[in-house]
Amino acid sequence: MSSEKHLHPVGMLVGAISTLRRWISGLVLPGVFLLVSQGFSLWTVTLFLLGVIVVAVLAALWGFLSWRATTYAVTGNSFRLRQGVFQKSERTIPLDHVQSVDTVQGIIQRPFGVYEVRIETAGGGVSDPDASLSALDRDAVQTLRREIEGSQIERSEERMGPTILRRLSTRELLVAGATSGQIGVAFSVLAIGFQFLDNFFPEDFVRRLAETLAPNWLMVVLILVPVGLLLAWLLAIGGTVLAYTGFTLSREGDFLYIKRGLLERREATIPLARIQAVRISEGLLRQPFGLCSLRVESAGYGEDAGVSATLFPLLPRDEVGEFLAVAAPEFAVAPTLKPLPRRSLRRYVFRATFVYLIIAFAAAPLSLLVLQSALGLLAPFLILPAAAYGWLCYRDAGWALEEDRLVVRYRSLGRKTAVAPRRRLQSRGVTRNPFQRRARLATFLAEVASGSGGSALRIRDLDAGAAETLAGDLGPGAHLERA
Amino acid sequence: MKGGPAERLDPRAITLWRITGALNMLPLLVGACFAALGLLRFGDGSVLFGVLLVLAVVVLAGVVVGVVPGMRWRRWRYEIRSDEVDLQRGIFWISRTLVPLARIQHVDTRQGPLQRRFGLSTVVFYTAAGPNQIPELSTPIAAEARDRIAELTREQDEL
After folding, report:
1. Which UniProt keywords apply (chain A) (predicted)?
2. Domain range enclosing A299
3. Which of A97, A230, B51, B114 has its CA 20 to 30 A from that of B57?
4. Domain around B99
5. A128 in the same domain as A73
6. A429–B95: do the CB atoms touch at under 8 Å?
7. What is the predicted ipTM?
8. Distance, in angstroms, between A429 CA and closest chain B CA?
9. If you measure CA to CA, which chain B residue comes closest to A465?
C-alpha cells in the first residue's frame, strides 16, 4: 500500500530532547557537586560548560541516528514500525487490532506544526504493543489515519468528517476551573512548595518574615489561610485551563473525538463500542449551580489505561440527557430512581459519624489528660455536620434498572450518577455484614471494565430482597425469561 | 437470584488454612514477645502489661488458626452453571458474586508449594474487570472446573 516512511525531521529534535531529559538527571548532581566543591573558578566553569556541550552534541547525534533508523509503513493488513540504532526492532500491528490513532501536540511539536501519533491497540492485553511516532506533519497524520481506519470502515462514501457536538467556551472553561473542587489537590501542592521554601531559605529568614508579617499566631492563621486558599483556587483554575482549553467533542460514526489542551494539544479517539459506563459528577461547588461534568469508563484504552476519561468537563445538569442522546445514545437514560428503605438511613448516618464518635468518646478525654490540649473537645462538634453528610448520602442514593441499563446514584462528596448497560457488567455481587443482615439490608455491587482493571457501581444498604432480585435481573438468563 | 451455590471446597482446605494462618501469625507473635521482653528489661511498665500483650496475640492466633478456617470453609460455596459462575464466601461480610460465562476471557488453575503438598489447586478466571477465584479444590476437580468453564465460555461465544 505504501513504502517505508521517515518521521518529520522535527523528530530528531524530539529524540534529542528526550535523550537529554533521560541523561540530565544523572548529570545534574555530579555537575552541581563539582561546582559547589571546587568553587566557581575559571577551570570548573569551563569543565562544566564543556560537559554540557559534549552531552548536547551526543544527544543531537543520537537524535539524528534514531530518526534515521525509525521508519514506518502500512503494508497489506498491518502497520509496521522499525526502530533502533544499535538494537534494531521491528513491530508489526495488524490493522484490525488498532483501536485508535490519537495525536498529542507537545510544546516541542507545536511551533513546528507537527504531531506525536499514538497508535493504541485493542484487546486490553498488556503484551499487545502500542506504537508511538514522535513527529508527523498534518498531511502525514491524515494519510496514516486514512490508511489505518480505511481498512476498518468500508463504507467510506458515508464519511462526512466528524460533526462537532459541543465546544467548551472560555466562560465555561473559567467556571469549570473555579468550581473544579481541585482546591484540595492544589492546596497540597502549595504545602509542598512552602515546605520547599522553608528548606531552601535559612530558618532565620522565614521566622523573621513571619514575625514581621504577623505579630501573633492568630494573625498568621487569619492571613495565611485565606491567602493559601486563594492561591490554591487560582492554581486549580490554572490547571483546568491548561488541560481543558478548547475542549471540543465531535463524533463521526461510531467514534468520539476529543481535542483539548492549552500548551499541549491532545486529540483522543474513543470508540463508542468500548465505552463501559458513563458517570455524571455533580461536584460540591457545581451542584448548587446545576452544573456537572461527564466521564466515561472505557476498556483497555490509551496509555493511561488505569483512569477514566473526561467526556465533557462542564455541562448544565438538565442538558445531560440531550447531550448523551447525540454523543453516546446507549447511555442516555433518565429514569426515576428508586430510593433506599428508611431503615438504611440509620446506617448511613452511623457510617458518616463513626470516626468522630470514636474521637469524641475516646480521644477527647485522652487528649485532655495526656496531651493537655482542648483540641480533642472539638470532635463532638464535628458529629453534627458529619451526620448531616450521612443524611445527604442517604437522600441522594438511588438506583434503577431501565431498558437493560443500570443507573446508580450515590454521593462521595459530590453527587455522582453512573449508567452502565447490562451487557457491560462483568460481574454482580451482593454483600451483607451482620448489621445489615439484622436490618434485612445488603450492598449491591456491579463491576464494569475500566482501563486495565475494573470499576464498581455500588448501592449501599438497599433492601436485601431487592438486591437479590436486581442481581438476578441483570443475569444472562433473565433477558430470555422476560422475552 | 436463584438459591445459593451448591458445591463446597475440598475439606483439606481447612488444614491448609490453619497452616497458612499460623505462618502469618508467627511474625506477630515473635514481635509481641520481643516487645514484652523490651518492656520488662527497659521500660518501667509492670510485668502484667507485657503478659497481656503476648496473651492478646496468642488469643488472636488461636482464633485465626482454630476458628476462622472452619467457618470460612463452611461458608465457601461455588457452582458453575450453564450461563454463569456463582460464588459465595465470607465470615462477617457474606458476599455472593455472579460472573456470566460470556464475560470470562480466560481461566487458569494455579498451585502454590503448600497446595502441592495437599494436592489442592486454585481456579482463577478473568473478566475484563479483573480476576475471580475458587480456591482450594482438589487438583483433579480444579482441572475439571477449569475445562468446564473454558468449554462453556466457548459455547457462550458461539451463541
Report:
1. Membrane, Transmembrane, Transmembrane helix
2. 264-340+397-482
3. B114
4. 77-158
5. yes
6. yes
7. 0.84
8. 4
9. B1
